[in-house]
Amino acid sequence: MPHNSSSILIVYASYGHGHYQAAKSLQASLLERGVPHVTLLDVMAESHPWINKISQFIYMQSFTTIPHLYGWVYYNTRKMKATSLFGKALHSLGIRSLQAMLEQEQPDLVIHTFPQLVLPTMKKRWQLTMPLVNILTDYDLHGRWLHPHIDHYYVPSTDMKQDMLAQGVPPERISVSGIPLRADFDRNLFTAQHPVTDVPDRKQLRIQAGLIPEHKTVLLLAGAYGVLKNVREVCDQLAERTDTQVIVICGKNESLLQELASHYSEHPAFTIIGFTDRMSEWMMMSDCVITKPGGVTVAECIHCELPLFLLKPVPGQELANALYLQSYQAAEVCDSSSALAERLMTALDQPEILQHMQTQLRTLQTPQAASYIADDLIERYLSQAHAAQLRSVSLKPNLQTTIN
C-alpha cells in the first residue's frame, strides 16, 4: 500500500478554530507528500447538527456569561476514562455519520484533531483494522483524548508526554510533535533557533506594513471573542506612549473593526485590521501579544517566540494553557486590566523582560509539526514496509455489523 494510493480521514470539530486549523494544516502537508485522498469530517456537525449548534453556543458563552460553569465541567471530567459510562456515552455521538463516511471513503488511516472518539469506542464491534491517531491541540491533558484503542498520539510538549506516561500510555505510542500550524508560519520563520535567510527580518516587515521600524510593537488579537473590550484601558495607556505602536486584528468581527477604526482613526500609532491571512507576518514583526490562549494561538506564539500577555483566561483548557506558559515564565497571566497594563508597560520599558520571555519560549519549540506528523504517519502506517507487514490483513473496516 504505497502512500500515493492511500486514503486518510481527519475528524475535527468546529468548536473554536484550532481543531479545524490543525486538520487543514495536516491535510495540506499530506497532500503535498502525494497522499491523494485526505478528507475532513466535522463529525458533530454532520451527525447531530442541532446538538452541534447548541454546543457551539455554549462554547461561545463560556467566554462571556458562563466561564466558571464551563470550567467546572472541564475540571470535573479531566480525569474521565473512556471505559466509564460517561466516556462511552460521550464517544458514541456520531456513530452513524462515521459509519457512512467509512463506507464511502474506506480510509487506510483515521486522525482525530478533536477528542470525539467514536471509532476507538467501536473498533472491536466493527472489527476495524486501520490505525487510529490522535493529535492533541492544547497544552493540558484531558481524559477525553485517551483511549486504549488509539494507536498513536502526537502531543505538543514533552511535559504532556510525561503526563501520558504517568497514566499508562506506552512510550512507543507517543511522539512530541507540537501542534500543526499553517504553512506560512514555517515559511516566515526567522527565529534564533531556526534562522531563515530568505525572509524579511522584523524591521523589514514593519516597513512593509507602514510601521515605524524602531518602535516597540504590541500585537492585540481581538477576534470574535471580545478580548479587546476588557483591555481598552491598556490600549489607552499604549496610546500615550511615544515609542510604541499597536496592531489590532479583529478577525471577522466587523462591528468591532468599525468601532475601533472610528475610535482610533486619528491615532497614528494604531493599525486596525480585520481578517488577515498574514498572521505569521504580524506576529513576526511584533515584540509581544495580548490574546486569548487557545492551543493553536499558543503554538503560533511559541513558534514565533512572541511573549504573551493574557487577561482572565477562561477556566478550562485556555486557563491551563496560560498557566503552563506562565510556569515557564513565557507569559504574564493577569486578573485585571490594570494589572495587565502595569506588567506590559514594565516589560516595554525593560527590554530584558521580553528577552527572557523569548528565551523561555524557545525552550518550548518543537519541529515543524504538520511536516513532522505527515512524514511520520507515512513512514509509520502508509509505507511499503508497513504494507508488507500487513499484506495478509485488510486495512479496510468491516462495517457489516448493524449499529443499534
Features:
45% helix, 2 domains, alpha/beta, 6-stranded parallel beta sheet, Rossmann fold, 404 residues
Q: Tell me the β content.
A: 5-15%
| Helical/strand content category | alpha/beta
- Mean model confidence by pLDDT: 84
Largest sheet: 6 strands, parallel
Number of strands: 12
Q: Give the CA-based shape.
A: globular
Can you describe what's shown?
Residues 229-350 form the Glycosyl transferase family 28 C-terminal domain. It holds the Pfam family MGDG_synth. Residues 19-180 form the Diacylglycerol glucosyltransferase N-terminal domain. With 404 residues, the protein is α/β, with parallel strands linked by helices. The protein folds into 2 domains: 3-181 and 368-389, Rossmann fold, CATH 3.40.50; 183-363, Glycogen Phosphorylase B (Rossmann fold, 3-Layer(aba) Sandwich). The protein has 19 helices and 12 strands. It has a 6-stranded parallel beta sheet, sandwiched between helices. Helix 12 (254-263) links the parallel strand 8 (244-249) and strand 9. Helix 1 (18-32) packs across helix 18 (369-382), helix 11 (232-239) runs parallel beside helix 16 (337-349) and helix 16 crosses helix 17 (351-363). The model is unreliable at 190-198, 387-398 and 400-404 (pLDDT under 50).
Short structural description:
The chain has 404 residues and is an alpha/beta fold.
Topology:
Elements lengths: L6 E6 L5 H15 L4 E6 H5 L1 H13 L5 H10 L8 H6 L4 H11 L3 E4 L5 H9 L5 E4 L16 E4 L2 H9 L7 E3 L6 H5 L14 H7 L7 E6 L10 H8 L4 E6 L4 H10 L6 E4 L5 H6 L3 E3 L4 H10 L3 E4 L5 H11 L3 E4 L2 H13 L1 H13 L5 H14 L1 H6 L15
Parallel strand pairs: 1-2, 1-3, 3-4, 4-5, 5-6, 7-8, 7-10, 8-9, 10-11, 11-12
Helix pairs in contact: 1-18, 11-16, 16-17
